[in-house]
Structures are given as structure tokens and as C-alpha cells.
Amino acid sequence: PNNGVGPNNGVGPNNGNNGNNGGLFGCLPSGCPHGTVCSAADACVVPIRECPFVIGTEGDQRLGVLLPLSGSLSGIGRSMFLGADLAARQFDASAGRLQIIVCNTGDDADSAELVHRYLAQELGVTAMVGPALSSQVVSLAPAAVRRSTVLLSPSSTSPAVTGLRDEGLIWRLSPVESLAAYAAAVWALEHPARSPGDVLGRVLVIFDEENPLLTDLIEGLDRTLSGKPGVEIVRTRQGEDWRPAVEDALRRDAVAPIILFVGGNRGPEVFAGVEDLAPDPDRHWVFFAGFVDLDALREETVARGRQVELVGISADAHGPAAAEFIA
Questions:
Q1: How far is the first Cα of the chain from the last one, in angstroms, to the nearest whole number?
Q2: In the Cβ-directed half-sphere of 210, how many Cα atoms lie within 13 Å?
Q3: What is the pLDDT of residue 231?
Q4: Residue 197 burial (CB count, 10 A)
Q5: Average pLDDT per run of 10 along the chain, which is 327 residues long?
Q6: Residue 66: which residues within 8 A CB-CB, separation 6 or more?
Q7: DSSP letter string over 145-176?
Q8: What pTM was estimated for this model as a whole?
Q9: Which pLDDT score is estimated for 124?
Q10: Judging by DSSP bridges, how do beta strands 150-153 and 127-129 pair with one another?
Q11: CA-to-CA distance for 235 and 217, rounded, in angstroms?
Q12: What is the model's pLDDT at position 23?
């Protein structure tokens, strides 16, 4: 009756205020019905479409989770979602009840602002995991201060986050891109397959600049690797075919190089294309893993009986330990 969630629009007698002496947010003594959440006004409401997942039941703690479940980085968002789900289950089993409201930020600032405003103002959520993207963290900083909400980003890496005037409300788990770039560059230069003066140790670095979120990382790697002996850098850009530049670089090499790929979702495509064009079992593939769709990459490598190496903290890492760390 009355919108399908119970009498009085699903919020109980007296607009739900009978729950003030029981339950975390005063909606109902036993909490809100399935498919609804408790609002800041003590009413059980159906979440907006941008917040499609509610994990756990109302209890001791409630968190918002802001993830890119659509758009160019949806692969990262899906993996982080699994981490959040695991954390909620473990918390429920060991420390009390935790409810997580998962919202889709896409890959633009407006979407992040919309769900942040909804969680903070409509639901009264004061602590949130996310956003995942540095640009969204930077754009949300003033709103986080204004609404007194804590943000903990699992994957923001831009140096711009360091200088935010956030009154101690914005935190992140991943290292800044300049550090990640240095580590990846040193790793490539010291790869076990490289021998100084040996052509077998050549490194072909592919910067696939189709993802604007990688700008700082690529610039840091470029500064570190440019001019180093045996290192050749190829840049491909969004909307351009990567094949001509990469094929030209491969033709100039008499032997298979080490290939370090830094980019986004085109990583599996580049791997498959190069291996189809010039298959070589001695070629070493290295991916800076933070923005690569590892599910797609796994399919391509398994199909060809190949293994690749990953460097960097990967937001797409699989397994309970990685998911728990990300969460």
C-alpha cells in the first residue's frame, strides 16, 4: 500500500518518528524495509537511481561509496565495488553492522557532486569512500568542507590533491603519481631482461594518452625515461590509431624489446594487436596496472598462452587481500 513500502508511504506512524528510540536513524525500530534507506529526515526512502546498491543493514555505521560504475573507468569501479562488499561483510561478521550505500559517479565532476550532495544532505552520511578519480576529488573539496564530510579516495593520485584546503577532511590511499612514475621508470630500467649495452635490453615505452587522468603520471615517466640508453618512447593519443607509431617502432628493432604500456582501456587491444602483427615469445610485456582493464587483458593473454607483468598499485587487483586493502 501507499507506494508499495507500507502504510504512510513506508515510514511508519507519525512519519517514522516512532523509531527515534530504536534503530540508528530513527526510521523504524527494526530499520527500513528492503530496497529503502533511512533519510536525514527519519523517513525510509528509495535511493536515487545514481545510488543503485545498498549493502548491509542499518546498524552501527553507515558509509557512502562513490565509484565510477559507468564510463571509461567502469572496470576500476566494479573491482572497487567488490572490495567494498567484502569489507561490509567482514565488518558485519566481526565488529557490528555496517551499511554501505554505493553510488555511481561516472567519470565527470557533475555526477560526483550530485551523489555527494544527495548522500550528505538527503541521507545525512558524513563519511564516504571515494571518489576514485583525482579530478572528482579536487572538484568536491569545497563541498566536502561546506558539508563537513570525510572523503577517503582509494585511487586518487594527482599532485593537485596534496595542496587542497580541505581542513583535514580529504584523504587518499594511493601514492602521488610522481612517486608511482619514478618507481615504474626505475623498474623498467632495471628489468631482469635488460643488460647494459645489450640490444636485448631495449625498452619500448607506449604512452597511450587516451585517458586524461594519466597526464601527470605520463609526464613524470617521460622526464625520467627520456634520453636513457636503449629506451624509445612512443606516444599515441585519444581518437588516433595507435598502430602506425607502434608498428614503426617495432620495425626499427631487430629483436623483441621490453614493452612498458602506460595507458587505459586500450591496453588489451594494443597487446593483442602487437602480438598478432609480430608474435615473439621472448618479448616482455609490462603494464602500469592502475588504469588497465585486467579482465580484458587476462582474456587476451590466456588466448595466446602468454604472461604479462604488472607494476603499480592496481585498482583492478583481484583477490580477497587486494580487495580488502582497496576497501
A1: 38
A2: 20
A3: 86
A4: 8
A5: 34 33 50 85 91 81 91 82 86 76 92 95 93 91 95 85 89 76 70 57 79 71 81 84 89 75 84 90 80 82 87 47 41
A6: 103, 105, 112, 115, 116, 128, 129, 130, 131, 132, 136, 151
A7: HHHT-EEEESS---GGGTT---TT-EEESSPP
A8: 0.60
A9: 92
A10: parallel
A11: 13
A12: 35
Nearest to 144 by CA among 163, 162, 171: 171
In the chain, DSSP assigns E strands to 37-38, 44-45, 53-55, 61-67, 98-104, 127-129, 150-153, 170-172, 203-209, 231-237, 258-262, 284-288, 309-311
Cα(27)–Cα(17) distance, integer angstroms: 6
**Are 57 and 32 spatial neighbours (Cβ–Cβ below 8 Å)?**
no
d(CA 265, CA 211): 8
Question: By C-alpha distance, which of 324, 256, 300 is closest to 87?
Answer: 324
Q: Determine the residue type at 172.
A: R
At residue 19, the pLDDT reads 33
Which residue in the block uniquely carries the three cell numbers 594527482? Answer: 158
CB atoms within 10 A of CB 7: 10
Residue 31 identity = G
Give the pairing type, strands 170-172 and 150-153.
parallel
| Residue among 128, 126, 124 nearest 43 (CA) | 124
pLDDT for 315: 39
Type of residue at 222: D
Angle (nearest 5°) at CA 299 between 298 and 305: 85
